Amino acid sequence: MADLNAAVANLNQQMANLIAALQPILTGTVPAPTATVTHAATPGTHNVTALIDYSTRTGTSIYQDGIKSLFDDEEKFDLQNDKATAFVDKVRARVKKMGWDNATQGITTYQVDGQPVDLIENYGLIEMSVIQDQSKPWYESTGAQVNQRASQNNQMFYEMLMASMTQSAIDRVNVYKDEFMLDDTTGKLVENAAALYKVIMRCTTLDTLTTNKALRDKVKDLPAIAATAAGNVDTIHSYFNDNYNQLRARGADIDDKEDILFAAYENVPDAKFRSYMAKKSEEYYDQTGDMAGKDWKFIMKRAKEKYDQLKGDTHYEWGTPSPAEQQVIALQAELADVKSENLQISKKLKAKLKEGKKDGKKEGGAQGGQKQKNQKDKSNKNRQKKDEAWKKVGPKAGEPQTKEKDGKKWNWCEHHQAWCIHTPDECEVGKKLKASKTTIANQAEVNDSGKKNSYAQQVLAHLATIDFE
Fold this sequence. Notes:
Elements: H1 2-27, H2 57-67, H3 84-98, E1 109-112, E2 115-118, H4 128-134, H5 136-139, H6 149-163, H7 167-173, H8 177-180, E3 181-183, E4 189-191, H9 193-205, H10 209-220, H11 222-228, H12 233-249, H13 257-265, H14 271-286, H15 296-312, H16 323-364, H17 381-391, E5 402-405, E6 408-413, E7 418-420, H18 428-443, H19 455-463
Antiparallel strand pairs: 1-2, 3-4, 5-6, 6-7
């Protein structure tokens, strides 16, 4: 009996263990098996060497992402040279997103003189014949990759380019259709995306020496552009990149890039920025400091950093001139004010002089307004000249300012610079000069706006008040 009880107890324990094991299954709480996930930056780069199954929703989605236009709400590419850089940037981004630059199934890298050359950035370095020849594996009927991912990439790339152009642009590139619609060796014409891209960029930049020179000239115009860009370093760099990148893509270059950039920074209307870049220029040419061994890209990096720093400083006003420049600006403004004020004063003075001439004519009567000269006694010219001569000889230092001659008392008049009967204090000329100085000081010291006049302005202002009768 004891053995039977022990057996029953053991059976019960086993049953309890079995129920506990089955409990997660019975309640639906069993965790699903974990699948291994392969990392990919985008759906297009997931398993990038595998053939895309277009019968699946995933495959169709990848295709749609690949062929859609580069421009959503923007106007499509019209082959205009000034839009080339933006177009190339968009193409590069799509190529990377879709994995069209993959090492084994990619279609954008070509061998030139034994070196790999990227089609998107350096289309000018790859001849059309090289593109047509090296893309045979994915477009010819017997090509090694004609039934692989590379062929699918070629088709998506082609359709994307066509969808991204205006109709007028498509009409232009279709003139060269025989270069990108190629015989697959069976008599069937098939699309070659890389060849189409080459034609597009050739139509945009024109593969001629004349265009290379034009692009170089545009780069060299950078200092002039900087002077009209209101100191916007981003605008300056964008202009440089737009033209220099096109030049590089065509297999050409320009030697004095650094000189051009530093010359452009000299025209930025901000004293602190110019001072900073002038120091960087010295370091670059002396090969010292952090500019030693650096190139034009590093120069632009430093300029951008300084520009952002100054623009972001809430305690600094971008565009502030140097103290010397501020003085020049102030002097220019003052000169403009003086010219304006003097013009008004001169108009008044001319009017007074004109009135005086008119009055003179009236007083002239029958003689037509001619001025009558004082008539001197010419009966004894020799005696008169001798009399006038001694009056003009002034007293020497320390000699008396008065003397008697011919029974008369004579006084040296500083105003007439001659011996006269009247004293200097009695001199009418002296009194008028004194009155004029007082009037100038009191009445013409400030102008209508309350600003102090220069002495020349004060004199002009006083002259404008005189009645010329």
